[in-house]
């Protein structure tokens, strides 16, 4: 049953902060497109994060766009959330291309999870999707190794779409050993990627697949430990998203909330529809903090080969 977030669930337990829409890739199905280059300054970001923590936030996920386009600001927020706010889990979602070992060396102690998007292990497919550079797969393996070296849990995100639905990724995923592999069915989001006439920056219609095709992909990879399938019915309204203006987004088509620095977290949440059951069903609550003293976030001590 859907519910207004804040009506029954009083706290924003897990927040996805998309603090920038800028990106260095051009994925054809992107659901959070570069409609603006706005980014808040660090003091305002910290103030907003503090408000969220006081309201009960336990996990923060920094996303974009591409968050590593702003490594200093990103690192400062990661450190602040773990050291000052003492959040249970601090994570980042990235396309991986701008991740450096020096960032993980400097901030890894305060970062629980690094999730890297990888939609194919075929560079030609990555290029067709808009994510390719010719070095996507090799960089993914480097990032996974850096995570292991610096105690950050490595997570893999894959958008299952028309171009990769038939791919067998088992060998690579087994070699990378992510603690969690999220497989998303490509999703149409109103105002972001849903207009074939060109009113939106992206047109994801040509990438869509049937539920049966998505289930077939998941079944092919069912043996992978940590596989978490996420079909459209679970994705659409189950994420609590804070945008670059510090507003909660509403995926039912209504206007975003007022900025939380202006009206506070509780009032902003009152205007956001959130599917509580879908949040729970998709595994929104899980073991999201790395164990104390963990030094091999990717699991094991073996080298990665591909």
From TrEMBL:
It comes from the Eukaryota. CDD domains: Radical_SAM. Keywords: 4Fe-4S, Antiviral defense, Iron, Iron-sulfur, Metal-binding, Mitochondrion, S-adenosyl-L-methionine. SUPFAM superfamilies: Radical SAM enzymes. GO terms for molecular function: 4 iron, 4 sulfur cluster binding; catalytic activity; metal ion binding. Its cofactor is [4Fe-4S] cluster. InterPro entries: Aldolase_TIM, Elp3/MiaA/NifB-like_rSAM, RSAD2/Viperin_antiviral, rSAM, rSAM_sf. One of its GO terms (biological process) is defense response to virus. It holds the Pfam family Radical_SAM. Residues 9-227 form the Radical SAM core domain. This is Radical SAM enzyme. It comes from Parathielavia hyrcaniae. The lineage of its organism: Eukaryota, Fungi, Dikarya, Ascomycota, Pezizomycotina.
